[in-house]
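Hi P.,

Sorry for the delay on this. The queue was packed all week, but I finally got your sequence through. Input first:
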Amino acid sequence: MKIAVINQPLANRGDEAAHKAFIRAMSKAFPEYQIYVIFLCEEQELIDSIRVEVENVSYINIPRVRGFLRFEQIGFLSDNFEFSYLHPSLRKFHNLLKGYDRVVCAPGGMCMGGFANWNHIWQLDVARRLKKPVLYWGRSIGPFSEECFKKKLFKKCSSRLLKYFSYISLRDKVSVDIASQFGVSADEVVDSAFLEIPASKIPESILKDIDGAEYVVFVPNSLTWHPRYKKISQKKIDEFYLRIIKLLETKFADKKIAMLPQTYKSVINDYEYFLKLKELSGNKNIIVIDENQSSDIQQEIIKKSFLVIGARYHSVVFAINNEIPFVSLSYEHKMKGLLEVLDMTDRMVEIQDVFDRETSDFKKTLDKVVLLVSGKLEKTSASQAREVVWNGFERFAEKINKIKD
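Then the structure:
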């Protein structure tokens, strides 16, 4: 059997961790099957950075030809999907997908929803039109909007796909609830990174910066790249994080603060943003880890910390996976949904609405952060997360074998 894995996100250490764990699990579950991870016009360097070297897994990258995103959208908007096949890259993807027995949508973020990623649903719709069994694994979906024609159409196309899929698992409770509004049943799982506990070695250069000190990991998020926060002042968001840095200075005066960039080689540049916050804070105890450290190394750094404060989804996933106390600065429903599944919402501080009000209203939110940080820092068990994700994976694997061609 030949399995195609499509829609794998890149340039994000969290998505890298999910990919590696998921592909390794698939490779072991289906040793007799050939698994092909297919990319449409992506940078080869980014693909190589997440590559899993196992015998039955291969990576295919269809060469980039400009304009493919426009052809995809026109295909949907004109109700003439075949028009998109006039583009050479899209035609090659379509022809390539004909040769596979199963199509799996790789784990990742909220492409079907708030980000309205047309390339994401285009690839899936090709599989649907080819009548391929499609398994949608470990994603978040929503929120959907109907504020304009394009968003209404995106929601309609997403609904059609959700109802077509042979199997759906979603990595947070909120997404499962959204699927149910479409009359679709989905397995409730958690992030694919929980499928394994990687072991790695922290580079000597980083150990030298840490210099044997205890440290807290702090992962801010510039947020203005996100549709929800595009109209919010970056200065206002920066001020919120600077106050948290000040809190950490006060509470842990003799400790260092390590910042872990989640994005790399991306227009969303966590590394440069963290350097900016370090300069604005004037805190010499901040260590900004370079963006080139793999997800395995990042998890090792978190494993040796005593606390994680994360405004990035996977910083919280990494903390739970390595059983480190954490505070989740939840900017999106996927973070809340994860913690609801694991009954850990007591470690969450909701920040989705805090920037909509006056800066003085930060106090209530920051007070909750203070309360959590000042409390007893208990380790968080990862056993439930692993049980949930592995139970889901077993159902996923069973479905792959039971689908009738």
